[in-house]
Write a structure and sequence with these properties.
Elements lengths: L12 E5 L18 H4 L2 H4 L9 H17 L4 H12 L4 E5 L5 H4 L6 E2 L2 E8 L5 E3 L19 E5 L9 H9 L6 E5 L8 H6 L4 E6 L13 E4 L2 H7 L1 H7 L1
Parallel strand pairs: 1-2, 1-7, 2-3, 7-8, 8-9
Antiparallel strand pairs: 4-5, 4-6
Helix pairs in contact: 4-8
Bound molecules: adenosine-5-diphosphoribose.
Length: 243
């Protein structure tokens, strides 16, 4: 079993995060008031079936995301997750739907980006992926095959395969009662965290700004509503007891 899928013998802490984790760093969420999808139709900029005919709109949207991420600083929620990872080496797994690098900037490692990486580009013809960091894409084309219109941001679009979902399902399948899962800053719209973690044997804690997502929030072992920067540090005592 690859290291990514190795299950530690003692209790583990799984962090499963969405856009809400970076909200207090100034990065917009997707849904709810002033969510990204309120202002830009996701079918134009995040749909694998239509992206090539919206090439310029796609790159303008992700250029804006990339540049916003360049100025963003990790917040206290990112920082406490990094501290937990340092404190319990190899027992804290981080799975994020976010495509920004704020968890890594806070000092986290081995972060599984389930929906890809906005700071990288991907050529859909030769499958090359390369970092361009936090800048606007210069539309110079694929470094390997030279094609220009086959290059998209290395973000998983709707209708596109998400290879890292295998890692997610392997971790979920192997959850035990001694494990703790913190589900933070996600509406569960794309990945049904209530069915993934709420239905698992692990002790699952939902942390969102407010109740009212489409998820069955009662499925989680516990629910905390408020800013992640305030709630996550307050969970350290509970986690200590379980680790
Ligand atoms: N602290 C904690 N939670 C927060 C905060 C905060 N400061 N701000 C917002 N939230 C919560 C909201 O309550 C909401 O439930 O974050 C969640 C954001 O939900 P979405 O905008 O739907 O983001 P997410 O769940 O990550 O979307 C999933 O959809 O469009 C796709 O690929 C995209 O990965 C994304 C996926």
């Amino acid at each position: 079993m690859s290291d990514k899928h190795r299950i530690p013998s003692s209790a583990q802490l799984i962090i499963f995060s969405g856009a809400g984790l970076s909200a207090e760093s100034g990065l917009s969420t997707f849904r709810g008031t002033s969510g990204l999808w309120e202002n830009v139709p996701l079918d134009v900029v995040c749909n694998f079936a239509t992206w090539e005919r919206n090439f310029d709109a796609v790159h303008a949207f992700y250029d804006a995301r990339r540049i916003a991420a360049s100025d963003a600083k990790p917040n206290q929620a990112h920082v406490i997750i990094a501290e937990w990872q340092k404190r319990w080496p190899d027992r804290v797994r981080i799975l994020t739907q976010k495509v920004d690098p704020l968890l890594e900037r806070a000092g986290c490692h081995s972060v599984v980006h389930l929906h890809g990486d906005a700071l990288s580009m991907h050529c859909v013809v030769c499958d090359l992926q390369w970092k361009i960091e936090a800048v606007a894409y210069d539309q110079s084309g694929c470094p390997t095959c030279g094609k220009k219109k086959t290059v998209k941001p290395a973000v998983v679009f709707f209708g596109q395969a998400a290879p890292e979902y295998e890692t997610l399902h392997t971790i979920v399948r192997n959850l035990r009662p001694s494990d703790t899962a913190i589900i933070v800053g996600t509406s569960g719209t794309v990945l049904p965290a209530d069915q993934l973690f709420g239905a698992s044997p692990a002790f699952s804690i939902l942390v969102n700004l407010e109740p009212g997502t489409a998820m069955n929030e009662a499925a989680f072992s516990a629910r905390h509503y408020g800013p992640a920067t305030q709630i996550l540090p307050e969970l350290t005592g509970l986690i200590e007891k379980r680790m």
